[in-house]
Design a protein that fits this description.
- It contains eleven helices and 15 strands.
- By secondary structure, it is an alpha/beta fold.
- It has two domains: about 210 residues, 3-Layer(aba) Sandwich (Rossmann fold), CATH 3.40.50; about 100 residues, 2-Layer Sandwich (Alpha-Beta Plaits), CATH 3.30.70.
- A seven-stranded mixed β-sheet has the order 6-7-8-3-9-10-15, sandwiched between helices. Strands 2-1-4-5 form a four-stranded antiparallel β-sheet, with helices on one face.
- The longest helix has 17 residues.
- The two termini are about 25 Å apart.
- The structure holds adenosine-5'-triphosphate.
- Adenosine-5'-triphosphate binds next to β2 and α1.
- Keywords: ATP-binding, Nucleotide-binding.
- GO terms for molecular function: ATP binding.
- This is ATP-binding cassette domain-containing protein.
Length: about 350
């Protein structure tokens, strides 16, 4: 029997008054998988996290965690998730160990017996490299250590899915790397489907997105791209050709009339072609092009292209996504098993077979 997805979100929609925060988001996270959630401010990431964590009852759609339905059985969902949000949930005045013991009692771990709860806390303190700070007050810890202590709190009850909302927000670069190493370690230490092995991580940082098995990009409440970092980059072409110009939409339109696949993205023009290098000299010579450069696609390009509409197929006014083929174009559907946009639903990618070994 196959295990249910760690998380299954179907057609999730929610509005705050007349502000539509989520508009039909569908997303699965496999047991053991880490999915990164990217999106500009206000794109709906926190609303999605709140719906998954049962803090918010969405207007429409379903959320199931390990098979438990958030609407019908929110308590079962809460038992299966660990939440590490931006504001730490530990009491500054208590020591790390006291704070975790209090949380363990609140989470019902005391029912396992004090000895077992203590063993669980010791295990987590060891794995999260906090053992030597166990008796320090939370309020005296550095930002990185405090975040790790908060992570220990989120993991106490053996959750199957950990929700992390900008887990490295406010941390210095070294503490960021250390926290990600810790998150990697948690996955390595546990076989898929064991505690804490699936992670949904909201982040604004592209290097953090690179550390995810798959990345989901939200734009104005819609899922506009979903795939492995490698597949999303590959969908932009082997090398992306970027043009600097004074009026990107106008140049993209002119190039479109010349039968090139060009789109305005973040004030520049992205040209997709099988051999973009061959186009470079002629494009560079144009009076309406200030500079032209070939660049291996990065996650920044993926993000810019996704929110610029490059992965959304089929909608009115959208052209064929670069690298995804199209009507009559070579390689139609080339990446459909790896990369998806919002429409058509047929190209939503399935869960990877082995999400950890990418
Ligand atoms: N409590 C609320 N009341 C009214 N509008 C809200 C509320 N919470 C969020 N919104 C609006 O819903 C939309 C989605 O917000 P959300 O916080 O989910 O986005 P986000 O992607 O998490 O943003 P950020 O990256 O800034 O945290 C935004 O337009 C936001 O202004």
């Amino acid at each position: 029997m196959t295990a249910p997805p760690a998380l299954s979100v179907r057609d999730l929609a929610h509005a705050y008054g007349d502000v539509a925060a989520l508009r039909g988001v569908t997303l699965d996270v496999a047991p053991g998988e880490r999915v990164g959630l990217l999106g500009a401010n206000g794109s709906g990431k926190t609303t999605l996290m709140r719906a998954v964590s049962t803090l918010l009852v969405p207007d429409a759609g379903t959320v199931t965690v390990g098979g438990a339905d958030a609407r019908r059985d929110p308590a079962a969902v809460r038992r299966r998730i660990g939440v590490v949000f931006q504001s730490p949930a530990l009491d500054d005045a208590l020591t790390v160990r006291e704070s975790l013991a209090l949380q363990a009692a609140l989470a019902g771990l005391a029912g396992l017996g004090r000895g077992e709860a203590r063993a669980r806390i010791d295990d987590l303190l060891g794995r999260l490299d906090l053992a030597d700070r166990a008796d320090a007050r939370v309020g005296t810890l550095s930002g990185g250590l405090a975040r790790r202590a908060d992570l220990a709190r989120g993991l106490l009850h053996h959750p199957a899915l950990v929700l992390l909302d900008e887990p490295t927000g406010g941390l210095d670069p070294l503490a960021r790397v250390a926290l990600w190493d810790t998150l990697d370690g948690l996955r390595r230490d546990h076989a898929p489907q064991a505690e804490g092995s699936a992670q949904l991580v909201a982040t604004h940082l592209m290097d953090e997105a690179e550390r995810c098995d798959r990345v989901a990009v939200l734009d104005a409440g819609r899922l506009v791209a979903l795939g492995t970092p490698a597949a999303l980059k590959a969908a932009l072409g082997r090398d992306a050709l970027w043009l600097d110009t004074d009026d990107a939409p106008a140049l993209a339109a002119r190039l479109g009339h010349e039968r090139l696949d060009a789109r305005a993205v973040g004030g520049r023009v992205l040209v997709a072609a099988d051999d973009p290098g061959a186009l470079l000299p002629a494009l560079y010579a144009r009076p309406d092009v200030r500079a032209a450069a070939l660049k291996e696609p990065s996650m920044d390009d993926v993000f810019a292209a996704a929110v610029g509409g490059a992965f959304a197929g089929g909608g009115a006014g959208t052209s064929t996504p670069p690298g995804m083929g199209g009507d009559g174009a070579g390689g139609a559907g080339r990446h459909h098993d790896e990369v998806s946009g919002t429409v058509p639903p047929a190209i939503i990618d399935p869960l990877p077979l082995d999400p950890i070994t990418e």
